[in-house]
């Protein structure tokens, strides 16, 4: 429709050509970067990556903190065999192994409010019992036909083991310990409670053999982007992915309707940004999180996504996990300790709200703290915790200062009689829920997923045009059948879709 003899139109036509790429990738997280790298490795450069945030990385976010770095998102390389992150990083000696991991629990104290320590032998018994169940749960064949939640399954086994003991720990301790254990292991999926997590869904996830908590020796998790683009170890061999990334480019709508028309040549897919800019492409690869899809799939796609994909979007679980870091100028805790786990009673929560009325309803989130732990890998003095589920969302409504002081006051309730706890000199935390480019942490299998028969494979299915060719494709951790919720899963999904694109463009 471009009137070539009209100067204005031809300029706009060439401007439009500039904004056309054969492939548009939405999202510069691990999966989008992996896809772009794989395409370029195969000599395909006609692509643009649209990223809403002012940075690349997505849920990998390494930040400077306390004269060091901390990870607001992914931190560990989970396992070795079959883990593509491990395979890229290990030969270059970038990874550190944590022989001390088993030791972590034995150097952790359990404390009641007021400072009393729980008896070591009883805690060890409870830790051993519950960890053994957790470790065995995803290889338990009984789970395959189980229709209940992970919480029910776990408690059944736990109570059986407890009943078999000659000397049982006091009921109050068992109760509070279980409250802690649910919180402390909640980061496996980030669900609101373990009664939301599917029991048999745990079998979908596949663990890579080997050390499950490998950390990066230096540089942090963001180094993985340099590995994907081959910038590391040899910058001269870098694939120019970064140059094809447009930051601050939030996609508002993907118009793929015209692809249903029979016209030849095929009309392009039109992608409009919130800032009004338009881009066109033959193929669009969507890598936004499942949280983003849950929140905005209705408006992001025109026409709407097919019913089966929407069923997966609505019913696969998407968790909430946040991290908190406090920086103290000097350690106030005994040396050699890996941290304090708190045994919380209802009375503690009531007392906290009474004593600190200035926090108002904020008292609701402190119960999400499982304890305060010392970061063994950082020489600086940092205490951190994970917070999961509803408290993780609630916490995001308050300022850094309020949360920092809330943590300090909560610490005071448990340890203030034994130690003078100073005000931290630094504080940071993640906010994955409020940020509309994430809306949470990572995917999991819920009871809803089971009921609705929702699968990662449904999320991964490309939308085909009338000729049966892929038009809109999907990658991202949540689209991986069994490595979902991880960086290695996200990367594999990006490679998978890059291969599909290469096949389709041939
Ligand atoms: C707290 C936390 C801890 C974790 N710990 C680990 C761990 O220890 N080990 C591990 O393996 N994994 C961990 N994970 C999971 C891992 O970080 C993710 O699975 C992985 O990084 C996801 O990559 P992705 O490409 O699928 O999605 P993302 O990283 O979310 O990438 C999608 C990109 O799309 C962008 N985007 C969103 N909406 C739009 C839009 N409208 N327009 C344009 N761009 C948009 C986003 O900004 C983002 O950059 C953790 C995650 C969290 C949150
Ligand atoms: C706090 O002090 C009391 C009394 O001395 C002691 O019994 C308790 O073990 C101490 N708690 C901690 C966490 O050090
Ligand atoms: C718990 O497990 C550890 C390591 O396997 C073992 O050394 C310890 O004796 C166990 N403790 C109890 C109370 O079972
Ligand atoms: C968890 O389960 C409860 C009770 O069944 C339900 O009300 C809630 O919506 C669920 N939460 C999530 C995040 O699925
Ligand atoms: C084309 O892309 C540029 C940025 O890459 C953007 O500023 C411009 O608005 C786009 N053009 C149109 C017609 O949307």
UniProtKB/TrEMBL annotation:
Residues 31-502 form the Amine oxidase domain. SUPFAM superfamilies: FAD-linked reductases, C-terminal domain, FAD/NAD(P)-binding domain. GO terms for molecular function: polyamine oxidase activity. InterPro entries: Amino_oxidase, FAD/NAD-bd_sf, Flavin_monoamine_oxidase. This is Amine oxidase domain-containing protein.
